[in-house]
């Protein structure tokens, strides 16, 4: 395997919780709680997981939007979790880009599409003249399938999907090497989504881009990701090659997810695992259950689950899972203790 | 009527600025009004600028004019009931000289000793003969030594502590016809009758006088019309006097012979250091237009054309000086003689006195007609006093109203034209003339009154020849008053040409019945 | 695609004018401002007594009510009020425009910096702002005057010196809440410089409030002319200045009401003009197309 | 980090601000043109008198020495003596500050109680006649200085109609309530003297209205502008879709987010009233500190200048603090941030 | 069996005044939701789905927007209703779940504050404070928000996108309106939660006889939840059919393209979507607005397309099926 482009090592991001007018800190949200993985150049790393499990927080921490509480993020040999190191590398903003989940608020309501798109072009000196910028913006809009006239529009006049396309155009503008796609197509219809995804894949192939792809649409994930990680309450539950994950889901949560995928044909229904009835409530990351955090909802939970947090382990070195059902996941000494 | 408490007679007046009631510090117009009502002075100013006995029943002057012995009147009581004695007079003068504020400069360097001997004799020894000395004693208010020392605070005057500095700024220790009831120097000062006053009161003299301080002209006017106010200050705009005079039940009174308007010309700054320029200015100024400017209505005006630095009615007035007249041709001719070509000058007027703006603009227009370019600048009073400290910063021309403070020509001339006064706002002419100094010094050290008068006339001629000022007009102070009030000075025979001295409220009268009838509140 | 061929400048102008003129008031406002500018430019030819704006006294005709030939009456010096109002616009507008162009950018910029950067820049800027806000304008003006020459330029400087903190405070408050907006984060992530983020992303979103305050301040600045000229700082007599005319004339109410009422109305008109204009500009900077 | 930490930090910073202010105003007071001794001694003082006073006031020493003297006095609770009233500055402040504070308080109340609702009304009925009227009238409010309002109101209500008193805080006949706090409101109410309080309110109407009109107008316009801005936000449309009544939308959903600029500017306006009240005070003979402040500045009354400015500065600091609190209350994002800063 | 209609949109037109001219977005929308029916509305982004719903709620205000047509709801034409009466309907009889969860929540109030305001408008009268609080917690739990107490006290910034979305769903459902318009309720949710919510909506609909109008891009969700689907393109309805029908035999070339664009779980790659893009509303093509992108376009497409009934309850606006002309919708 080639040298990883990005390696995340035991990354932690906690938010304090405050309440009342005096805003006392009453607890902590463990939004990201010890996540490790690495990305090779050119791959599409899928990140799925339930809402609030910390995907966006993870992405924002990679992007430098939040300061990591602990852990390391290595990007091309630099630990960019350290804000000082990040500042030393201004080019990071060119290399790492993002398309946000929420198109409405990521566009400045008082700036036209053109003004918004011109920023990355100018910042990274990708264009020098006014006319060149206009041409480049028209080209960008064309790649995201918006008519060039839209460059004069304000976000308020765009539909949700149109806004998202502008956001994608903005991310593409810097010709980055790594793009975080935080639910980039969730506001788009399937037709446009198809085009955008195709475009993103084209670009990836052409420019050897690496994607961190966050989505709830597992059907889409199935088709774009090379590897998929499943996140649950700030931790990775399972990480595997796409085919392996969809074909042989190990973690009960993964299975629960896959069984709930809405599909459009009977043929696909048959591809989903046996339906696992979702049960219980999603725990809050502010009050993570002890032991395996999934145990209250897990159909297969057993005695050790509420007491001990499993560790990640893999039988084949590629399909990693964090569940007591699998060998190696129960910490050795605990397992020993349980045996005696 | 006997029996039953009578409704107190209240007189309400107003004045600008803060009121200082310490006799050793008071100088301003309003200070003077309160001063003369709260304190008895050693010598009193009388109508026509004469001097009259007061606390000093009589006095004798030694032949060398260096020792003055005063016989102190017995039976005068301070407001706390204690008798006034020679020791109090001695104390008051010493205190004034020690504090070195207010009018103390009149004694500074002149008085070498003051000594009370017994309850009724005070001897003051001078370092050299001092002609105006007796006149200046109209500003020596007698405070109770015992009371002041009882209320002294810590201070730098050794056994005298702060010399009652704080105490006398808050209340009085006098023997005058009125005593402090409440005093807020910025807002309202209330004085009430001291019934045991030795000289008595007029029949309907006010029991209480309320002095409202620093209130807008429009407010005073409203209060007057609502009959919630009795007598205005002399500082209202002409237009308001006119309106008040048109109001039923309100009349205007004027008071003359106290004050003069000077257009002080800086004789040490180009181009007004050239006497030809100054002559041109004086000739080019339109004195008649000034009269139009200060005219209130057909009956009342705020002044008349002046002849020189001293107003008519004040000791030392020189009736032989010519009445100035505008003569454009002569002015142009004088200007032609000047060494300056394009004559340009700065006219600084005191921002607090709106009337001066009109004078300034008139002057500007007049000068434009003879080819002099005048730049008019508005200067707040505090800045003006600062500018006055140096010839370079003193504007070329500044209008200043000056009122006599003791009944002697010296009051007008010395602080204006003597070199030692230079640097103060009274002497922005920067005359610095040895000859004038000589005459003024000589007049001071001359003992006999007639001789002194001659010297002062001589000095005035010499001064006027150098054109250090334009004298646009002699100011008549105008007051509006309710017709149920009779001010003491309404009778010209009773007018005292010294700032504040005639505002002796014990002689004023308020006709309460008439007031009721007129709807007074 | 021929849409790109549309000249962006013209396109922008068209949009701007559309946004501006959609609200009829702003066109009226522009009209008023333009009319006043023209009126003052050609004042010597458009007023009946241009001499009255300079050294001139005529106590014979002082305090005349509106009528002929003095349309708006005369003041206590006998000068035509109409003439002086028209000439007065010159100084008042100059004062207003100069002060606001000096104070607003300064204040806004400091507010942006303080609101955006946490830590010491915020503390330093905002506390200095506090100090400046606490100093009485009069003291500040006098102090500046003491150090510099008392002339019109320095008067403007003095007023600007007391004006900027208000904008700093206003913008600071706005930026504090705007800085967490998604688009600000987005701009940071594409690598936009802080200058860009502050000036292009955040500033436009502060403009409505700033513009509103500016139109009102136009009035306040014109009025402050009167206190300045009292200190001998601002416009000096006989040059007319609207603020001074209003303040001084008030003394003669109600008899000579015209002395202060007409200059007051004149200020009202120009401020109304600017205010309507400001509303229009707000629409131009606004979110809608 | 706790919010209380933020509060404590903020208070400490305020003390620092006051210290900085004292140094700055100390210097400003000394560069203001004019010789305090000369001004204090009055028109006719001689040069030697002036020299004597200058020495007494340490005016011939370097500035930092003067400041040290001043600070030493301050630590003894001594503000020095006013050259203007010849009284202890502390006494002047005690006499004058409560009256102005009271006037300013009621004016501020009017600004909020009248101005903000007017702004709301104008925003809700945007582009209708109510809006146009409010906007035009508020402009008139802004372009007319408080001083002119004072005169106009006085002429109408006291001169022409004669329904309201003109000068002072209480009718002359009325005994002033015991001067525990110096404010009539508190003193009268503490003493249960309702008659005095009502009389005071009658005296208060004209000055407080004149003083607050510009602020009322400003409040109305600022409120309207930001309400209109907020009205276009999606969450307002959402609230409407949930059937929240228009009045509740206006008074809650639009008002709170739109109050940030209004609160900021109005708060400062309020604090500035303390200094701006001087002409109104002199029209209505209100025994206040604003007039005193202007006089002492013009007379270069060093001790009084510093003391008055420090009092005003303290007021500003307190108001500023309240603005910060209020803005934090209005927008939780700001509050969250304030805390992070304190951390 | 066609249920009694609850919402009936007839020939709805909407246009916007813009500096470049008039944008005619909605171009004769006809749509009916029956009582107790679950209807899906799908269509490409920007085709006017949200706009139609805003028109229903009376949120399109002149002078910017011009709306024409009829919107009948429970016997009243909403477009002709005075605003006060409309206010009574909103949130009680018709509730809307907004597309953009961040923007739709007021940033300066806590969730609790906003939710309680909605609860206070319960048609059966205002509940007591504790009752309202309980009801709020219950509904938050129902939309699968764990720790509802924290959510109630949180400000919108403190919640994840999905959490906000669920809060909005809770706000819409809490008063049990007759019609719930859900504008992309699932976009920000993971599939398990989405499923949970869809189940919840379905159970409410079934239990209380509510109607649902579900707007979404997710055709899988439409298939799972709805009884009937409308397909919209560029401001008008292209096709409508019972759900199963539509997924089995889509008629309109646009519908066909749309279905073909859905990525499949079988993993054969992401389909490329329909060629071309949605027209510019300032200058839409005459006749059928889809014609420029249609592989079957013919000269006849220059005229407005006919409204053809191809099967029971299955209608399509396309000349391809014109053989059996059917009367236009009433
Ligand atoms: N700025 C913040 N302050 C406090 N808590 C936060 C903040 N941002 C996010 N959280 C909390 O962190 C947790 C993870 O949020 P995050 O946005 O990362 O979830 P997500 O996986 O992206 O969810 P979704 O799929 O809904 O977007 C949530 O519980 C959220 O409430
Ligand atoms: N205020 C407006 N002014 C001008 N045009 C508008 C306005 N609001 C919406 N539009 C236009 O109307 C069209 C339809 O918008 P709408 O929001 O209804 O789309 P949508 O079908 O909901 O799309 P999405 O699925 O992306 O949310 C868009 O092309 C948009 O540009
Ligand atoms: Mg997220
Ligand atoms: Mg939509």
From TrEMBL, chain A:
Keywords: ATP-binding, Nucleotide-binding, Transport. GO terms for biological process: peptide transport; transmembrane transport. Residues 6-258 form the ABC transporter domain. GO terms for molecular function: ATP binding; ATP hydrolysis activity. CDD domains: ABC_NikE_OppD_transporters. InterPro entries: AAA+_ATPase (IPR003593), ABC_transp_ATP-bind (IPR050319), ABC_transporter-like_ATP-bd (IPR003439), ABC_transporter-like_CS (IPR017871), Oligopep_ABC_C (IPR013563), P-loop_NTPase (IPR027417). PROSITE patterns: ABC_TRANSPORTER_1, ABC_TRANSPORTER_2. It holds the Pfam family oligo_HPY. Transmembrane segments: none annotated. Belongs to the ABC transporter superfamily. NCBIfam families: oligo_HPY (TIGR01727). This is ABC transporter ATP-binding protein.
Automatic annotation (TrEMBL), chain D:
Its main location: membrane. Pfam families: BPD_transp_1, BPD_transp_1_N. InterPro entries: BPD_transp_1_N, MetI-like, MetI-like_sf. One of its GO terms (biological process) is transmembrane transport. The chain crosses the membrane at residues 12-32, 103-125, 137-161, 262-284, 304-330. It is a multi-pass membrane protein. Keywords: Cell membrane, Membrane, Transmembrane, Transmembrane helix, Transport. Belongs to the binding-protein-dependent transport system permease family. This is ABC transporter permease. It comes from Candidatus Segetimicrobium genomatis.
UniProtKB/TrEMBL annotation, chain E:
Pfam families: ABC_tran, oligo_HPY. GO terms for cellular component: plasma membrane. It comes from the Bacteria. One of its GO terms (molecular function) is ATP binding. NCBIfam families: oligo_HPY (TIGR01727). Residues 7-259 form the ABC transporter domain. This is ABC transporter ATP-binding protein. It is a peripheral membrane protein. SUPFAM superfamilies: P-loop containing nucleoside triphosphate hydrolases. GO terms for biological process: peptide transport. Belongs to the ABC transporter superfamily. Keywords: ATP-binding, Cell membrane, Membrane, Nucleotide-binding, Transport. It is found in: Cell membrane. PANTHER family: DIPEPTIDE TRANSPORT ATP-BINDING PROTEIN DPPD, OLIGOPEPTIDE TRANSPORT ATP-BINDING PROTEIN APPD. InterPro entries: AAA+_ATPase, ABC_Ni/Peptide_Import, ABC_transporter-like_ATP-bd, ABC_transporter-like_CS, Oligopep_ABC_C, P-loop_NTPase. It comes from Candidatus Segetimicrobium genomatis. The keyword Iron does not apply.
């Amino acid at each position: 395997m080639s040298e990883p482009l990005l390696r995340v090592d035991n990354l932690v991001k906690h938010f304090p919780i405050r309440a009342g007018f005096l805003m006392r800190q009453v607890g902590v949200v463990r939004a990201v709680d010890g996540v490790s993985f690495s990305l090779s150049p050119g791959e599409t790393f899928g990140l799925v997981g339930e809402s609030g499990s910390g995907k966006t927080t993870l992405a924002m921490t990679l992007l430098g939007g939040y300061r990591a509480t602990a852990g390391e993020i290595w990007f091309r040999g630099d630990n960019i979790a350290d804000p000082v190191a990040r500042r030393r590398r201004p080019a990071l903003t060119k290399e790492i880009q993002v398309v946000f989940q929420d198109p409405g608020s990521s566009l400045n309501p008082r700036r036209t599409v053109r003004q918004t798109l011109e920023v990355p072009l100018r910042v990274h000196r990708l264009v020098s003249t006014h006319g060149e910028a206009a041409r480049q913006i028209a080209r960008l809009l064309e790649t995201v399938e918006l008519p060039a006239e839209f460059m004069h529009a304000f976000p308020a006049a765009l539909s949700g999907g149109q806004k998202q396309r502008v956001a994608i155009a903005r991310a593409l503008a810097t010709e980055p090497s790594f793009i975080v796609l935080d639910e980039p197509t969730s506001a788009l219809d399937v037709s446009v989504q198809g085009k955008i995804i195709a475009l993103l894949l084209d670009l990836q192939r052409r420019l050897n881009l690496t994607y961190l792809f966050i989505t709830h649409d597992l059907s889409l994930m199935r088709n774009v990701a090379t590897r998929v990680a499943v996140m649950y309450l700030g931790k990775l539950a399972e990480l595997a090659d796409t085919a392996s994950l969809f074909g042989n889901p190990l973690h009960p949560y993964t299975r629960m997810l896959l069984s709930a995928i809405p599909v459009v044909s009977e043929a696909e229904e048959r591809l989903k695992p046996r339906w696992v009835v979702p049960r219980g409530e999603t725990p809050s990351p502010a009050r993570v259950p002890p032991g395996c955090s999934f145990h209250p909802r897990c159909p297969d939970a057993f005695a050790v689950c509420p007491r001990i947090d499993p560790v990640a382990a893999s039988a084949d070195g590629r399909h990693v899972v964090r569940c007591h059902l699998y060998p190696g996941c129960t910490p050795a000494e605990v397992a020993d203790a349980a045996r005696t | 009527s006997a029996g039953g408490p009578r409704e107190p007679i209240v007189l309400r007046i107003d004045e600008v600025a803060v009121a200082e009631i310490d006799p050793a510090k008071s100088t301003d117009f309003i200070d003077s009004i309160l001063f003369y009502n709260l304190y008895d002075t050693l010598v009193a100013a009388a109508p026509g600028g004469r001097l009259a006995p007061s606390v000093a029943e009589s006095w004798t002057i030694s032949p060398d004019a260096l020792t003055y012995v005063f016989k102190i009147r017995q039976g005068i009581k301070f407001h706390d009931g204690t008798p006034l004695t020679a020791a109090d007079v001695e104390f008051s003068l010493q205190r004034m000289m020690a504090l070195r504020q207010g009018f103390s400069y009149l004694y500074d360097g002149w008085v070498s000793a003051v000594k009370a001997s017994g309850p009724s004799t005070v001897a003051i020894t001078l370092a050299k003969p001092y002609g105006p000395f007796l006149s200046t004693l109209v500003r020596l208010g007698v405070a109770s030594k015992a009371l002041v020392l009882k209320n002294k605070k810590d201070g730098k005057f050794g056994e005298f502590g702060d010399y009652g500095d704080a105490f006398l700024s808050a209340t009085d220790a006098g023997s005058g016809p009125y005593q402090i009831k409440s005093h807020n120097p910025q807002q309202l000062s209330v004085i009430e009758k001291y019934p045991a006053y030795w000289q008595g009161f007029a029949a309907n003299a006010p029991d209480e006088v309320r002095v409202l301080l620093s209130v807008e002209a429009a407010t005073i006017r409203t209060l007057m019309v609502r009959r919630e106010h009795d007598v205005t200050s002399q500082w209202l705009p002409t237009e308001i006097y006119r309106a008040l005079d048109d109001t039923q039940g309100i009349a205007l009174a004027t008071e003359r012979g106290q004050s003069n308007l000077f257009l002080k010309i800086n004789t040490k700054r180009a181009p007004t250091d050239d006497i030809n320029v100054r002559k041109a200015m004086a000739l080019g100024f339109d004195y008649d237009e000034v009269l139009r400017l200060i005219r209130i209505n057909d009956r009342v005006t705020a002044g008349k054309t002046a002849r020189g630095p001293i107003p008519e009615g004040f000791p030392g007035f020189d009736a032989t000086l010519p009445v100035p007249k505008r003569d454009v041709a002569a002015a142009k001719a004088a200007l032609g003689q000047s060494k300056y070509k394009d004559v340009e000058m700065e006219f600084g007027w005191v921002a607090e006195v709106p009337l001066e703006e009109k004078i300034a603009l008139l002057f500007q227009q007049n000068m434009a007609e003879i080819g002099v370019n005048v730049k008019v600048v508005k200067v707040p009073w505090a800045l003006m006093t600062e500018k006055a400290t140096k010839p370079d910063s003193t504007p070329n021309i500044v209008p200043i109203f000056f009122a006599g403070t003791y009944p002697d020509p010296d009051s007008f001339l010395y602080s204006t034209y003597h070199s030692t006064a230079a640097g103060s706002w009274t002497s922005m002419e920067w005359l610095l003339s040895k000859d004038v100094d000589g005459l003024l010094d000589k007049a001071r050290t001359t003992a006999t009154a007639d001789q002194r008068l001659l010297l002062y006339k001589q000095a005035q001629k010499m001064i006027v020849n150098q054109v250090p000022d334009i004298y646009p007009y002699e100011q008549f102070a105008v007051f509006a008053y309710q017709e149920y009030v009779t001010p003491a000075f309404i009778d010209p025979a009773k007018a005292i040409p010294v700032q504040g001295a005639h505002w002796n409220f014990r002689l004023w009268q308020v006709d309460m019945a008439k007031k009721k009838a007129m709807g007074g509140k | 695609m021929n849409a790109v061929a549309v000249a962006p400048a013209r396109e922008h102008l068209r949009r701007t004018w559309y946004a501006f003129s959609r609200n009829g008031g702003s066109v009226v406002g522009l009209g008023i401002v333009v009319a006043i500018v023209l009126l003052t430019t050609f004042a010597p030819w458009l007023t009946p007594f241009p001499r009255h704006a300079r050294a001139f006294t005529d106590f014979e005709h002082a305090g005349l009510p509106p009528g002929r030939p003095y349309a708006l009456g005369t003041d206590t010096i006998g000068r035509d009020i109409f003439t002086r109002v028209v000439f007065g616009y010159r100084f008042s507008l100059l004062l207003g425009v100069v002060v606001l162009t000096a104070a607003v950018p300064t204040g806004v910029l400091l507010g942006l910096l303080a609101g955006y950067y946490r830590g010491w820049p915020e503390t330093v800027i905002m506390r200095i702002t506090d100090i400046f806000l606490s100093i009485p304008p009069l003291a500040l003006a006098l102090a500046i005057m003491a150090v510099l020459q008392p002339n019109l330029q320095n008067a403007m400087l003095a007023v600007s010196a007391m004006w900027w903190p208000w904008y700093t405070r206003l913008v600071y408050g706005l930026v504090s809440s705007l800085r967490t907006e998604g688009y600000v984060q987005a701009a940071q992530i594409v690598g936009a410089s802080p200058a860009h983020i502050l000036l292009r992303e955040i500033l436009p979103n502060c403009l409505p409030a700033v513009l509103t305050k500016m139109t009102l301040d136009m009035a306040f600045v014109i009025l402050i002319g009167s206190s300045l000229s009292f200190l001998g700082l601002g416009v000096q007599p006989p040059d007319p200045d609207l603020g001074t005319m209003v303040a001084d004339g008030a003394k003669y109410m109600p008899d000579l009401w015209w002395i202060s009422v007409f200059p007051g109305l004149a200020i009202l008109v120009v401020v109304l003009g600017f205010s309507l204009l400001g509303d229009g500009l707000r629409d131009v900077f606004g979110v809608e197309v | 980090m706790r919010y209380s930490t933020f509060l404590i930090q903020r208070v400490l910073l305020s003390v620092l601000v006051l210290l900085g202010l004292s140094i700055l105003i100390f210097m400003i007071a000394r560069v203001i043109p004019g010789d305090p001794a000369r001004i204090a001694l009055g028109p006719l003082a001689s040069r030697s008198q002036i020299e004597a006073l200058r020495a007494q006031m340490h005016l011939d020493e370097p500035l930092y020495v003067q400041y040290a003297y001043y600070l030493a006095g301050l630590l003894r609770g001594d503000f020095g003596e006013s050259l203007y009233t010849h009284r202890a500055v502390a006494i002047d402040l005690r006499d004058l500050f409560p009256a102005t504070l009271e006037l300013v308080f009621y004016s501020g109340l009017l600004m909020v109680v009248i101005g903000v609702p007017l702004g709301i009304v104008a925003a809700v009925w945007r582009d209708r006649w109510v809006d146009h009227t409010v906007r035009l009238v508020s402009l008139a409010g802004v372009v007319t200085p408080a001083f002119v309002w004072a005169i106009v109101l006085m002429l109408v209500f006291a001169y022409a109609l004669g329904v309201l008193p003109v000068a002072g805080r209480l009718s002359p006949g009325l005994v002033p309530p015991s001067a525990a706090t110096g404010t009539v409101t508190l003193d009268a109410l503490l003493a249960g003297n309702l008659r005095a309080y009502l009389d005071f309110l009658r005296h208060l109407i004209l000055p407080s209205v004149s003083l607050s009109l510009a602020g009322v107008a400003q409040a109305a316009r600022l409120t309207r502008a930001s309400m209109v801005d907020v009205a276009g936000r999606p969450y307002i449309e959402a609230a409407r879709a949930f059937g929240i009544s228009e009045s509740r939308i206006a008074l809650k959903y639009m008002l709170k987010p739109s109050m940030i600029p209004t609160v900021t500017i109005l708060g400062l306006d309020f604090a500035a009233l303390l200094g701006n009240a001087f002409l109104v005070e002199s029209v209505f003979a209100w025994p206040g500190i604003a007039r005193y402040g202007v006089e002492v500045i013009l007379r270069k009354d060093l001790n009084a200048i510093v003391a008055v400015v420090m009092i005003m500065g303290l007021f500003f600091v307190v108001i500023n603090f309240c603005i910060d609190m209020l803005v934090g209350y209005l927008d939780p994002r700001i509050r969250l941030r304030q805390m992070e800063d304190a951390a | 069996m066609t249920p009694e209609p609850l919402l009936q949109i007839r020939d709805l037109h909407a246009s916007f005044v813009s500096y470049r001219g008039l944008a005619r977005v909605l171009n004769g929308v006809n749509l009916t939701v029956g009582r107790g029916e679950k209807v899906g509305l799908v269509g490409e982004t920007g085709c006017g789905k949200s706009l139609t719903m805003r028109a229903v709620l009376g949120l399109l205000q002149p002078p910017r927007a011009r709306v024409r047509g009829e919107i009948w709801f429970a016997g009243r034409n909403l477009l002709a209703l005075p605003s006060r009466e409309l206010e009574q309907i909103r949130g009680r009889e018709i509730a809307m779940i907004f597309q953009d969860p961040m923007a739709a929540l007021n940033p300066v109030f806590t969730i609790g504050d906003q939710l309680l305001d909605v609860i206070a408008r319960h048609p059966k009268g205002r509940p007591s404070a504790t009752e309202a609080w309980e009801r709020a917690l219950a509904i938050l739990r129902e939309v699968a928000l764990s720790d509802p107490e924290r959510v109630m006290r949180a400000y919108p910034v403190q919640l994840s996108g999905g959490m906000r979305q669920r809060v909005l769903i809770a706000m819409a459902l809490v008063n049990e309106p007759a019609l719930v318009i859900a504008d992309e309720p699932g976009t920000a949710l993971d599939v398990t939660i989405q499923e949970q919510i869809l189940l919840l909506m379905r159970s409410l609909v079934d239990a209380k006889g509510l109607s649902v109008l579900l707007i979404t891009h997710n055709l899988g969700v439409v298939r799972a939840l709805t009884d009937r689907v409308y397909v919209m393109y560029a401001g008008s309805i292209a096709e409508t059919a019972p759900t199963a029908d539509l997924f089995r035999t889509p008629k309109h070339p646009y519908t066909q393209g749309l279905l073909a664009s859905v990525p499949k779980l079988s993993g054969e790659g992401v389909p490329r979507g329909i060629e071309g893009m949605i027209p510019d509303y300032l200058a839409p093509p005459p006749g059928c607005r889809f014609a420029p992108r249609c592989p079957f376009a013919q000269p006849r497409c220059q005229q407005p397309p006919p409204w053809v009934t191809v099967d029971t309850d299955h209608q399509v606006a396309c000349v391809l099926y014109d053989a059996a002309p059917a009367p236009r919708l009433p």
